[in-house]
């Protein structure tokens, strides 16, 4: 596993783009706790600025983080900014940035999504918002947290998807912005809750959206929202 190291050379300045990105990382991390997607310091958030990845530190409550606590690594995991240790899940974040064009990653231990990850190999297409994640959401095989094995399993589950479930662990979702990654994360947790609720009805089986309808939904969602 790639290990991050505390920098021995003078720290680079927290430039305006990096400061902006760090502010958004902290804001998003705080949203995950406020919205009940994580408990304590579980979960983590990152954003990419060029070849620099700003990431939440390990084991520090998000409400205590300020501008002086910024942590950044390069794409090889070498720490280039900050004295705090990066999140233990750094291998997953870096794997996504190396293999996709993502600019932001959100990882949570959301309750309903984690429950679903223990029950199925793929979240059924219970709602058309499944299309926003690229299709039915796969469950990555279980591996020890923070390991290269988990990062590899995650990449397999993320093929042609922007999010996946992690077996007995939680969710990981990426996007072009932190707002997009967070919204997709919240939608995934909501869909898991819907599926669990519907599947719990005695003697009933939830109806699912067929693939052709999912493709139509994906096309329509591509133009959703305001122009520009």
From TrEMBL:
UniProt-listed SMART domains: Aldolase_II
Coiled coil residues, start to end: none
SUPFAM superfamilies: AraD/HMP-PK domain-like
Residue span(s) of domain Class II aldolase/adducin N-terminal: 23-196
GO (cellular component) term, any one: cytosol
Keywords attached to this entry: Lyase, Metal-binding
GO aspect biological process, one term: pentose catabolic process
Gene Ontology MF: a single term: metal ion binding
Keyword Metal-binding applies: yes
Pfam families: Aldolase_II (PF00596)
InterPro entries: Aldolase_class_II_sugar_metab, Aldolase_II/adducin_N, Aldolase_II/adducin_N_sf
The protein, known as: Class II aldolase/adducin family protein
């Amino acid at each position: 596993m790639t290990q991050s190291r505390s920098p021995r050379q003078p720290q680079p300045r927290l430039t305006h783009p990096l400061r902006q990105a760090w502010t958004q990382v902290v804001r998003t991390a705080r949203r995950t706790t406020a919205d009940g997607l994580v408990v304590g310091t579980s979960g983590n958030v990152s954003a990419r600025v060029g070849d620099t990845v700003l990431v939440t530190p390990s084991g520090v409550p998000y409400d205590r983080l300020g501008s002086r606590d910024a942590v950044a690594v390069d794409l090889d995991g070498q720490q280039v900014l900050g004295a705090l240790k990066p999140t233990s899940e750094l291998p997953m974040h870096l794997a996504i940035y190396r293999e996709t064009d993502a600019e932001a990653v959100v990882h949570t231990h959301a309750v309903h999504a984690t429950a679903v990850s223990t029950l199925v190999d793929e979240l059924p297409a219970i709602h058309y918002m499944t299309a926003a994640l690229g299709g039915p959401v796969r469950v990555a095989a279980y591996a020890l947290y923070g390991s290269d094995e988990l990062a590899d399993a995650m990449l397999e589950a993320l093929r042609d998807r922007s999010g996946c479930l992690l077996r007995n662990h939680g969710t990981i979702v990426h996007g072009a912005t932190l707002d997009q990654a967070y919204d997709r994360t919240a939608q995934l947790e909501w869909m898991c809750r819907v599926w669990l609720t519907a599947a719990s009805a005695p003697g009933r089986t939830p109806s699912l959206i067929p693939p052709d309808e999912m493709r139509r939904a994906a096309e329509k969602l591509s133009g959703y929202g305001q122009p520009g």
